[in-house]
Records
---
Amino acid sequence: MGKIMVFDHPLIQHKVSMMRDKNTSSKEFRDLAREVAMLMAFEVTRDLPTQEVQIETPICPTTVQMLKGLDVAIIPILRAGLGFVDGMLEIIPNAKVGHVGLYRDPKTHEPVEYYCKLPEDIDKRRVIIVDPMLATGGSAVAAVDFVKRQGAKDISLMFLIAAPEGIKALTDAHPDVDIYIAAKDEKLNDHAYIVPGLGDAGDRIFGTK
Ligand code: PRP
Ligand code: URA
């Protein structure tokens, strides 16, 4: 069974609250997304394995812990997931980046796949799928289906805001994945938007509406 972690860190809460505000501009929204991604990445990578390495400080030889091999793949769900990539790469600069292109059909709310490209050695990497919104869960479930079909085994997902409906759909379909969420909201509305949420994350990042 994977873990579900909802962040209660005041810095993350404050930044997410600013992103919810409809008066926050696209530029501010993008900056905040980058900052929240960096803060969340810190926790999402907590269990990366380390190994003992011998070094010499200016004072004496010593044994220290260093990462064992930072084989991480960051997979944004297009478009809105792109808003998290820069912040993640600042913390994990050697990570490879794959892309899963999905959009929600406005009538059915079902995900439609339009582009997918993953690192070749995805089966050997710690995969972190990123997307600001987990609403019905359709897009996240489809993204995990896809990366698993390509061989990924060690999978975490990172969201800004999640609805209870989406958390249930994702854990029912993929009980083995770890889920990290900055904020858990109340419910979905009739258009499958998260309430109170922050609106359409893709439009807010890219200023398309
Ligand atoms: C948004 C969001 C998620 C999806 C969540 O993307 O970024 O990918 O909706 O909804 P779900 O949990 O009900 O599937 P959208 O389809 O609006 O595409 P966009 O990122 O290109 O705007
Ligand atoms: N996608 C979004 O961008 N926002 C929502 O509230 C739900 C799906």
Note: The chain has one domain: 4-206.
---
Amino acid sequence: MSKPLKIAINTGGGDAPGLNAVIEAVVMSAYNRQWEVYGIRNGYAGLLDTDEIVHLTPEKVRHISCQGGTILGTTNKGNPFHLPVTNAAGEVEFRDVSNRVVENFKRLRFDCLIAVGGDGSLKIAYDFFLKGIPVIGVPKTIDNDLTATEITFGFDTAVGIATEALDRLHSTAASHERVMVVEVMGRTAGWIALNSGLSGAADVILIPEIPFDLEKVCDHIMGGELHGQHYAIVVVAEGAVPAGGRVICKGEGEAGRQEVVLGGIGEYVAAEISKRTGKDTRSLVLGHLQRGGSPTTFDRRLALRFGASAVRMIEAGNFGMMVALVPPEIRPVPLEQVIGRVKHVPLEGDTIRTARDIGISFGD
Ligand code: F6P
């Protein structure tokens, strides 16, 4: 009989509903093979300071698939290849401490690391694979912008939450004859905006893939007035840009963070609509509400399937690979084919065409 394996698992980057379902599936699939699973806290931090590594037994993960967040904690600023450290002078400098991670991984006699994360975390996982750690990646992001997989868990939940918010805004917008501008997440991809905007009967959807013209947005809104609709719902992806303009950021964010913090486009669009149409306009940012709470059944099932597949991939020796949904199957794809790429909304895709057919404007 082959020796029982000792698997490490971590979750990195922004949380997404479904992370706990992956953990549950990994632990149970491993347990049923007489393997052991250990949880690494806060991305790779738990492999630098190994005191808090936790043995994940079936009791610890029982039915956590219904819970949002991650029982392991996560971070989007702990890249061990570029770790921010405050020096004696109080300045932040960046150090490569990846060798310490590799040493601890070997010292603790782990056989494999399951890294659950988005593009940034999967890139780190791949870099550790190149340094000799047997890695399996599990894709995670509410943004649904990872290539090679049809969909990521967390996305369906985020779209559901945004759609419910839009449903609620219709009645208050109608009562006050207002324009409501709703900013949603998604980084440089418009998946959340497009799908929630379509499901929630938005009048205008602004996505990064289609630079928008504010005059056209306003014309569309005022066109509604002619047909007796005195209110409008506008969904704006946080990464949407006016034609010839630039993406709006809140700043660089915390030290060590790989990406800038997007945000502010909703307020800008609302101010312009108000100025140009004279209509009473309000804006709101859905923000982290889109990431909180229980995953939908779709996300739970996808995450459970990803987790169990990751364990099967260990059995098959598919290291340096990521589990991906290639309907109807879950398949291994090389991590290097995924990292550093963005899956954008296809402009000629059926969803955009459906939205256009039913009269939704993209401001183009
Ligand atoms: O990638 C997921 C995401 O929620 C993006 O949609 C958003 O831009 C970003 O993370 C927000 O990050 P943070 O949680 O660090 O504010």
Note: The mean pLDDT is 96.
